Predict the structure.
Amino acid sequence: MKKILTLCLLCLGIQASAQDPYFNHTIVNSSDVFGTSRYVSMGGAMGALGADISTIGTNPAGISMISKNEVSLTAGVSWLSDNSASDFSKTTFAKFDQIGAVASFKLDGKVRNVNLAFNYQKKADYNRAFFGETTTKASWVDQLCGLADAAYYYRDDLYGDPHTYNYTLYGLMDKSGLLNVPIAKSPTDYNNTLSTTSGALNSYEFNISTNIDNRYFLGFTLGFDNLNYNRMTDYFEYRTGTDNSVQDFFYNNHQRVSGSGFNLKFGAIVRPIESSSFRIGFTIETPTWYKLKYIDDQFLETMYDDYGKYIPSNLPTYQHYVYDLSDSYINYLEYKITTPWKVRAQMGSTISTNFAWGAEYEYANYSGTTMKYPGSYGSTVSDEAFNFETQNIFKPQHTFRAGMEFKPISSLSLRAGYNYITTATMPDASWDPYWVDSALAYPTGFDYMNLSDTHIITCGLGYRYKWFFADVAYKYRKQSGEYFAFNPDYSTDATMSAIPVDLSSHSLTATIGVRF
């Protein structure tokens, strides 16, 4: 069945080589909460409560509840949890999360005010690092050899022998001699992976909202995203040599993605009972349409010469590169990603003047993420193979948010929040480039990670004095993952298993602002 499907997909071309569904899901989707410290400390559950500039992204109607002009700024630090599988414990990253302003125009009549707002806000933080090791006897070359043979058999008539492509991973491995020796049948002592990522996904959002009779609130937000992502992956395989343990080969893959996207959000909040402060909210968020640029380079060190002859040595003898930015066809790719629609239902209320609570539910079906390529005359070409594999790997994600605020005195606020976010990955999902024809000839790696559900616990303090306000927030984000250097289906070693990775993190932020 796989062979039949592969043949059917050959017409898609070869430009999708650098991509896989896991990679693209990581860079354009976030399961986190960012914004002002007040917003973060209440777990982002302010869609129905409003009156905070960070609701510009979760319910645009919430901006209309700000009755004065406002300017705010948020910054802080984040660090990784202690991680038994990581050499990067307690790594600290300075971060600038938010800056925004609201202009409120008061009106007479039922329309109480019209507000205009702008907000810069972080949507995803890519700063991660982990080191994983396994004593499995399986080799990364097992999968490479199997797919190289399939690529040669099914694609030789269209694109030639992929073993000879010096600028591809197959060509790199073949040139190094690793495809010319029975290394896949030689068990490893152990292998390990070092992965570091950096960068951020930031949004710039413009909003218009209105308050009608203090019971109906409407808002619209136009958002522009800016994405910068860097990933450095080092993979090692070790075997026992004649005298001591030697490094059979070392592979480095450096991936960089940059680009932009835009989306629209429509929100409404209603107080169904005039005498009650209870309110409900609803938001529809369109897909984000991203246009991205990808650059990749690869590096390999091995103990084998170009003819597959093993050269025992304490240091690698041969070095091979795949790196040529002057050739855009090899290392440079332009493509488009469309994320799924999102819908949110919210509710909240205040009790007297010293207590408020909010709750929120969000739905997004990530199996609907699609990938396209720019065509001629402004057209786009859909990558049906990528989209098919995305449907096999991902599923709908459900997000639940709750938060509360208590004021023991009028100038001081105590806050707490919680998020539960289900994983968007199907049970026992795996990445197999056999399904995507272009990846057969042009892979850049076979690794992937299945993520667990996410739990976010937040708390914070707020201070108000006349026109000035200051807030602080603490956030603990708990999530784990199962990392695979390659698909275990290609391993002859029954003991091969995932490397557990702790992706948990902490952050502290502070917001200062004025209302006038």
